[in-house]
Amino acid sequence: MANKLSVSNLLGIKYLNEDDIYLIFETARNFKEVINRKIKKVPSLRDITIANLFFENSTRTKISFELAQKRLSADVVNFSSSSSSISKGETLADTVNNILSMKVDMVVMRHPSPGASVFLANNIDSCIVNAGDGCHEHPTQALLDSFTLVESLGDLNGKKIVIVGDILHSRVALSNIFAFKKLGAEVKVCGPKSLIPKYINKLGVDYEPNLELALNWCDVASMLRIQNERMNQSYFPSTREYAKEFGLNKKKLLKLNKEIIITHPGPINRGVELSSDVIDSGKTVILDQVENGVAIRMAVMYLLASRL
Amino acid sequence: MSVDLNKKILDASKLSLILNRLASQLFENHSDFSNTVLIGIQPRGKILSKKIKYLLESSHEIKDIKLGFLDITFFRDDFGRENKVLNANKTSIDFSIENKTVVLIDDVLYTGRSVTAALSALQSFGRPARVELLSLIDRRFSRHLPIQPDYCGCQVDAINNQRVTVKWKEIDGEDSVYLYIKNGK
User: In what order do the strands lie in the sheet containing B101-109?
Assistant: First the structure.
């Protein structure tokens, strides 16, 4: 196994190779053991300063990154766009350059524009971690999803995974497609045709319009959230109809004569993509995903910081 | 970097004698091991600690010795300084070390930095009553920090461009200790 990442930023899964992904998993496995200790902190990044720039709302990812940074003993500064000089007209590159001149070593950024982190990496001399950029990529989410599945299934080679829901607006879907494919899984997408990107086949992914057929085919169902905040028009008749056609409930699961793994990146619209009886049944790995998120983010920042 | 095989300092029979002596010394000081635990420093101290445990159990008839393995990668003081990432190994300590005597076990004691990292890492598992250090090889003139072993198998006076490597039958095919000289230095 490689002992170094092939990249100096984490902009997307697209830029990682299989060795990088396995190196991150192996490191995360050790960090998972660390965060289950009574004392959950290690001193690895004690001389590293990390800025978390969140230009878009986030609960889970922000807390997860911040916890990961603190458990690595990094110094952390937080920034949210609502209380910043962005509202005074400062450009993204200027804002970040100003922050970097205060001797910050790494930038974790979430931004509503697709490609924002790639733009930043091209224009700024610092280590960038993409924490989600518009409808483009959310690499740490895909890594923690894949890591959780590898923990349950051993490996993803030849496994069948269906991603259900709003593929068009989902950065999680795109990152997950790249990650699952790089790890050897077969991937299908399922959802209303209006929420499936036109050129999805170019990613080596098939479209299955029928959820029941998709569930019968798969080993893993990766359910996505309907991203109402990114929809500027109506993509399906009603939430109720969406839930009926593409939501997962206990009845649909009981009809399958096999066990499947159910993932969701959160936040969940209860009763839309997943019904409460499925969420609370203990058959999903949603909370494992959240726990693994901290370990994966520790691994990513640890491996990137070692290149600084 | 290529290395030349230089000199075998210890062969299997000498190594076996030394291991038996170390086990006996531990037995003298800790008798039934009711309040003592063994912790091998990953990766190279793992096999040594298993062998010591086996000898204590077989030759001295001590039962239920607690043995754990401690990885120190995330506690090292050279992170990011040598432009290489050190891959971590598994830590498995499934018992409390609170108020116990901990015997840290490693194959070669060189600069003392690994042991310092191990002492920091150990704090995550409780407050031991006492910590001792067992080292198979002590490179006594190469220390960067004030660390000394309590139990030492063999002292080796090597200079800095030399390397002492302990080989074990289980992973390297033979039980022996070699002294290497790095090429080009």
Answer: B66-70, B36-41, B101-109, B130-138, B151-155
Task: Using DSSP bridges, classify how beta strands B162-167 and B130-138 pair: parallel, antiparallel or unpaired.
Answer: unpaired
| Predicted local distance difference test score (pLDDT) of residue B2 | 47
Contacts of A48 in chain B (CB under 8 A): 80
Contacts B85 to A, Cβ<8 Å: 3-5, 302-303, 306-307
- Tell me the CATH number for domain B3-75+87-182: 3.40.50.2020
pLDDT interval class at B98 (50, 70, 90): very high
ipTM above 0.95, yes or no: no
Domain membership of residue A48 (yes or no) is: yes
**Taking CB atoms and an 8 Å limit, are A38 and B89 in contact across chains?**
no
For chain A positions 55-114, those within 8 Å of chain B (CB to CB) are 72
* Full residue range of the structural domain in which residue A80 is found: 13-137+292-305
B1, pLDDT greater than 50: no
C-alpha B50/C-alpha A223 separation (Å) is 46
CB-CB under 8 Å, A30 with B91: yes
- Using CB atoms, pick whichever of A30, A39, A41 lies closest to residue B71: A30
Q: How many domains does chain A have?
A: 2
Looking at the fold, whether A188 and A80 belong to one and the same domain comes out as: no
User: How much is the average pLDDT of A186-215?
Assistant: 94
Residue A139 to residue A144: CA distance in whole angstroms: 9
Count of beta carbons in the 10 Å neighbourhood of residue B47: 20
Do A190 and A299 fall within a single domain? no
**Cβ–Cβ contact B85 with A under 8 A:** yes
pLDDT digits (tens, 9 = 90+) for B33-78: 999 999 999 999 999 999 999 999 999 989 889 999 999 999 988 8
